Amino acid sequence: MNRHIKLLLQRALINILILLGAFTVQTCVFPLLPMFSAVPNLLLILTFSFGFIYGRKTGMLCGLAAGVLMDLFYTGPFGFYCLIFLYIGFFNGIFNKYYYNDFIQLPLILCAVNELIYNFYIYVLRFLVRGKLDIGYYFMNIVLPEMVFSLIFTLFLYRVFLGANKRLDVIEDKRGTNVA
Amino acid sequence: MDNKTSKYMLIILTVLCTALIVISSVQTGFMDPLRNTVGYVLVPVQRGVNAVGTGIYNKLEEHAELKNAYAENAELKDRISTLTEENNRLRSETEELQRLREMYELDNEYMQYTKVAARVIAKDSENWFEVFRIDKGSSDGIEPDMNVLSGGGLCGIVTEVGANYATVRSIIDDESRVSAMSQHSSDSCIVAGDLKLFEDGRLALTKIDKDANISDGDAIVTSNISAKFLPGILIGYASDITIDSRHLTKSGNLIPVADFDNLQEVFVITELKTDMLTDSETPEAQ
């Protein structure tokens, strides 16, 4: 039991570090790159990947952590991003039962759907309420580019997470047999 | 079983988030202690990563620029001669301007504001917003509502301050509204950020009275009656002014002076309008 908790903590720590890394890259490095007309949403990719790979609870916790980071960074009501990331983590966790190691199509579809929902949430609550009605324009110029970049990054990152996950599984299995 | 606990978790966390949203909307400073604490950890990291990123970016830029340098050199030599000529003409005009200024006691006020230089360390990753973070905070004397300049023009306003960082909303953000006026006629208008217009590098210029004397090319500065912006800071130049369909107001575009594509260093004016303000506030614009 004790060993189990230790392993859990270890995983949690690694995941928090990954989240912080993604957040830093997303806010400090990507905006500097002129060839990126839009910034891929790394935190969103992380949240839905974790939800999809590990299940609802981990997805929710990861989403909550990502949301807190975003909320801390921006002014405005605290909890705005927490809420949407929380739900994204949860709902992608539902698809956990369709999770097979080398099945990349579903994550890509999920990524596109998540981007749509996430941006729609921002559009409705921050733009539509102020009477900015031209949803078509915003879709073509903001949502679509971000979606394309996020999809490309999902292709890479999802594999990386899978690899990391497998490796952690192997390490944990080894330790388990050693002790037993 | 596991499904149930995760559903309960979702419900509890949703309620928690909603409560937080409500509380922090009502009481804006509510989360500041937490934001501040996290700032202590995160800002040095962001500053470091940003320094490395900027370094690499500048190196690449330099390399690319060297290629263009030869062609540019020849072109520039040509321009020097034209400019020298123009310079002579302008110099005489400057003297005239100086004389006129003294006459009207119109000292260019914002040259005298005290400023603090700051580095942009992080930008909003959301493509929806134009918000960035600088590496100076309350320990350097920065306070909310201080005006931020870049490239000789108004760039934004400080919205939130931590001990070692401050968040700035730039004037091109879709939610930004600046009360402004024409420099030469003092007719008032509103400079509004607009996500759509900024694709062409412009801002919206609205609420101009139909009789106001503002035409294309006029310098637009921050207004005397603004509650948060210091008076007389150059924002940009008016363009495409047309009369609105209802024939009551005019509107158009504004070409900003500050360069928003490549923000690396900005200046924060460490004086607040509220300290100067005696009366007259605009409820609608800041």
Summarize the structure.
The complex is a heterodimer of chains A (180) and B (286). Chain A is mostly helical and 180 residues long.
Structure description:
The complex is a heterodimer of chains A (180) and B (286). Chain A has 180 residues and is mainly α. Chain A has one domain: Arp2/3 complex 21 kDa subunit ARPC3, CATH 1.10.1760. Helices cover 79% and strands 0% of the residues of chain A. Chain A has 6 helices and no strands. The model of chain A has no long low-confidence stretch (mean pLDDT 82). Chain B folds into 2 domains: 29-107, no CATH class; 114-273, Rod shape-determining protein MreC, domain 1 (Thrombin, subunit H), CATH 2.40.10.340. Helices cover 37% and strands 27% of the residues of chain B. Chain B has a 6-stranded antiparallel β-barrel with strand order 1-2-5-4-3-12. In chain B, strands 6-7-8-11-10-9 form a 6-stranded antiparallel beta barrel. Residues 279-285 of chain B have low confidence and may be disordered. The chains are: A mainly alpha (180), B alpha+beta (286). The interface between A and B is large, with 52 and 53 residues.
For this structure, what is the CATH class of the largest domain in chain B? Mainly Beta
β-sheet strand percentage of chain B: 25-35%
* Major sheet of chain B: 6 strands, antiparallel, barrel
CATH top level of chain A?
A: Mainly Alpha
Portion of residues in helices of chain B?
A: 25-40%
Question: Within the largest sheet of chain B, what's the order of strands?
Answer: 1-2-5-4-3-12
The shape of chain A is globular
